[in-house]
Design brief:
mainly beta, outer membrane lipoprotein receptor (LolB), chain A, globular
C-alpha cells in the first residue's frame, strides 16, 4: 500500500519569511507572531483530489527558525528545527534523518511558517476572494526549487486556519489548524533533539 512520509511534505518548510507590520492577516502572522502552537490535521490529495494520506498532530513555532511538528496519527514522527539543523525521527523505523537548515526556498509547511525575512523577496503575493469565513491569500514562489508551486493561506479574521500547497505533480497538501495559541511561552527543550539510543542516523 502506498505510504507517503509526512517528512516529504513537512521538512523544508522554514523559509525566510517576515513581513512588515500591517493590518492584513498575512503580514501580521509573519511580523507580529514570535511563537505559535496549534493542533493540525494534514491531508495529501492527488491531482484528482483523491486522498492519498491523512495525518494529525501538534506543531510549535518559535521564530526565528525553530519549530517542532509531532505527528501522532497514523504513526509517530517528529520533525524538529533547532535553528541549525532539521531532524526527522520516525519512531516505527527507528530512523533519524538530519540535514542542515539553509536559506534555500523549501518545500514543506514547517519551513514556510517558521522562518524570518521579507515575504516579497521570495513570493509574489495576491489577495484572493473571500470564501465563507476565510480570507485567502496566494503566495507564488519567485524561484522554482522543485517544491511547492502555489501556496494559499486561509485566515478567519487574524487567525490562520488553512494552509494549502500544490506541488509540480499536481498534489495538494492541505493543513487545517485549530486550538491555536499565539505569543505564549514555549519550552526551549521542544526545539532540541538528541537521536534516541539505537536509532539509525542518516545525514543528508
Amino acid at each position: 500500500m502506498f505510504r507517503m512520509k509526512p517528512a516529504s511534505v513537512a521538512i523544508f518548510l522554514l523559509l525566510p519569511l517576515f513581513a512588515s507590520a500591517a493590518s492584513d492577516p498575512l503580514q501580521r502572522f509573519f511580523n507580529d507572531i514570535y511563537s505559535y502552537q496549534a493542533s493540525f490535521k494534514q491531508v495529501v490529495l492527488d491531482e484528482g483530489l483523491n486522498t492519498l494520506q491523512e495525518s494529525s498532530g501538534t506543531l510549535w513555532i518559535q521564530r526565528p527558525n525553530r519549530f517542532r511538528w509531532d505527528y501522532e496519527i497514523p504513526y509517530k514522527q517528529h520533525i524538529v528545527g533547532d535553528g541549525k539543523n532539521i531532524w526527522v525521527h520516525d519512531e516505527e523505523l527507528e530512523q533519524v534523518t538530519v540535514r542542515k537548515m539553509n536559506g534555500a526556498l523549501g518545500n514543506t509547511p514547517a519551513i514556510l511558517l517558521a522562518g524570518g525575512g521579507k515575504l516579497t523577496d521570495n513570493f509574489s503575493i495576491k489577495k484572493l476572494d473571500k470564501q465563507g469565513k476565510l480570507q485567502w491569500i496566494q503566495m507564488i514562489p519567485k524561484v522554482n526549487d522543485g517544491g511547492f508551486e502555489d501556496i494559499r493561506l486561509g485566515f478567519e479574521g487574524n487567525d490562520l486556519r488553512l494552509l494549502e500547497m500544490i506541488d509540480g505533480f499536481g498534489q495538494t497538501t492541505r493543513i487545517t489548524m485549530s486550538d491555536n495559541r499565539e505569543n505564549k511561552s514555549i519550552r526551549k527543550s521542544l526545539f532540541r533533539f538528541t537521536p534516541p539510543k539505537g536509532a539509525d542516523v542518516i545525514k543528508q
